[in-house]
């Protein structure tokens, strides 16, 4: 089954649980399982903002985890670059053409230590930041600080 069909099947399978959650009809265990599924699929970051914020709260509380992270532990490391890239795309309405290739690369990367073809992860992030000067606003400031912190703290 193609990727789009798989995503559509997942979305239609999870829709009843989303409706139940919206109506406060899920217990705590069902809610955590729902949000872990949304996080694992990436849908938590693509749906309305309150889903992503709730997912982040569950991760911070140790109830959920990013894919590939140890369940039950608080999120100690930086967010995956692919998640950051999704947030950027959702916020930056007219992406500067010079930032596009680096934003696409980040969209395929997990963490900053991963190379992207012949470019190192840190160089992709640096090139993105140097081409993102026209992206402004509170989200832009927060995300740029997050990316700069990833470069500074040695998460390379």
Can you give a write-up of this model?
With 156 residues, the chain is an all-alpha fold. It has two domains: 3-60, no CATH class; 81-152, no CATH class. Helix content is 58%, strand content 0%. It has seven helices and no strands. The protein has helices at residues 3-22, 28-41, 49-60, 81-91, 100-107, 121-130, 138-152. α2 packs across α3 and α5 (100-107) runs antiparallel to α6 (121-130). The longest helix is centred in the N-terminal third of the chain and has 20 residues, at 3-22. It is elongated and about 45 Å long. The model has no long low-confidence stretch (mean pLDDT 84).
Number of strands: 0
Strand residue percentage: under 5%
Could you give a short account of the major beta sheet? Answer: none
Low-confidence stretches: none
Task: Please tag this protein with its features.
elongated; mainly alpha; 156 residues; 7 helices; 0% strand
Short description:
Helix content is 58%, strand content 0%. With 156 residues, the protein is mainly α.
Record the SSE blueprint:
Elements: H1 3-22, H2 28-41, H3 49-60, H4 81-91, H5 100-107, H6 121-130, H7 138-152
